[in-house]
Amino acid sequence: MSDRLAAMLPGWGIDIKGAGPLYHRLLVLEKAILSGKLKEGDVLYSERDLAEHLRVSRVTVRKAIDHLVQDGFLVCRRGSGTFVGGSAVHADQPPLCANSLKGNISWRGSDTKVECIERSTSHPAPEEMMTLGLSSDSHVVRITCLRSSVGQPLAIERTCISSEFLPHARTVTSSICNTLADANFRPVRAIQRTFASNIEDPDASLLGVAIGTAGLLTKRVAYLASGRAIEFTRSLFRGDAGGFVSKLTSLEN
């Protein structure tokens, strides 16, 4: 069993500054699915086997599995086990990163206006802790933007970055990617997933729609060359926006 797990899940001799061992050992499950080592319908190894191989507690493994179930990578079937889900993404995005504050999304060919409506620093929420590999006593910078076209609000974008990489939200003036690059923390790849989502308050009020209206939620995670997740952006779109185009900018340019 250990040999099979070792072939599927890499070892942990890599020392990446700023990322604790918990982050690395949990991220490998997602990487195994994205790379195709774990395929749709495959049965996940038991919590005990994973905990022993990754050298973490079974409680930690269970929390990681719950996170992957929430994002559609895994499916739990009572009495049968945990399986790789059919909605999981099986390929990484190329080395791209969206310029979150620079008008990278357009609707029906029209330009959009981006307004920063909130900047704050606080402790990370549970999903942010899991995604960015942070502890509960760390701090994150959050930047919330409202996108609109011809006076109509279309989307809310919430970007979260560890204060280790971005100490102050006010340092971002145009592009988060450019700001991180200037600080020598340039992401090299990004993974973005899309979900159907009902829009609830306070987002419904900001977007000018009724509570419960159908919308589209994207979750994008950008990574450094070391493998450390550096940016977590959640974007909520109105379902009646009439279609949009998302433009990603190569980090090599």
Automatic annotation (TrEMBL):
SUPFAM superfamilies registered for this protein in UniProt: Chorismate lyase-like (SSF64288), Winged helix' DNA-binding domain (SSF46785)
* Keywords, in A-Z order: DNA-binding, Transcription, Transcription regulation
> Which domain of life, per UniProt?
Bacteria
The family database entries (Pfam families) matched by this protein are listed as:
GntR, UTRA
Q: Which GO terms describe its molecular function?
A: DNA binding; DNA-binding transcription factor activity
PROSITE patterns this protein is in? HTH_GNTR
Name the GO terms of the biological process aspect. negative regulation of DNA-templated transcription
The segment(s) forming the HTH gntR-type domain are: 19-87
SMART domains listed in its UniProt record: HTH_GNTR, UTRA
By what name is this protein known?
GntR family transcriptional regulator
